C-alpha cells in the first residue's frame, strides 16, 4: 500500500508542476474568407452534384462514353477551387441551355486526370506516369 501511495503522489507532483508551466498561445485576425471557404466549397460541390444528377446531363455524359459514377468520382477528386469554378459556370449557364459547355468542361477535366495518370476513363489516352 505504501508503494501505491508513493506512485500516486509522485504522479500528482509531476502533473501539478507541469500544469504550472506557461503555454504558448497565438492570436491573429481571421479573414471572413477563411471562415466561409469550407461552407462555400460544400455548396459548390452540392451544386455540381445536383447538376450531374439531372437526367439530361446523365444522358449527355453517357453519350460522351463516360459513366455517371466516374464523373461523380472526378468531381470528388477535384480541388475546391476547381469545383467552385465549375459551379460558377453552371450557375451562369442559361436554364436548359449550354449543357454542351458544361459537358465539355467535365470532359476536359476527365481527360486531364487521365493524362496525369490519376484515372483511366478514356482508352485513347496514355498516362505520363
TrEMBL record:
<dbReference type="InterPro" id="IPR016924">
    <property type="entry name" value="UCP029543"/>
</dbReference>
<feature type="transmembrane region" description="Helical">
    <location>
        <begin position="99"/>
        <end position="119"/>
    </location>
</feature>
<keyword id="KW-0732">Signal</keyword>
<keyword id="KW-0812">Transmembrane</keyword>
<keyword id="KW-1133">Transmembrane helix</keyword>
<dbReference type="Pfam" id="PF20332">
    <property type="entry name" value="DUF6627"/>
</dbReference>
<dbReference type="InterPro" id="IPR046735">
    <property type="entry name" value="PA2779-like"/>
</dbReference>
<feature type="signal peptide">
    <location>
        <begin position="1"/>
        <end position="27"/>
    </location>
</feature>
<keyword id="KW-0472">Membrane</keyword>
<protein>
    <recommendedName>
        <fullName>PA2779 family protein</fullName>
    </recommendedName>
</protein>
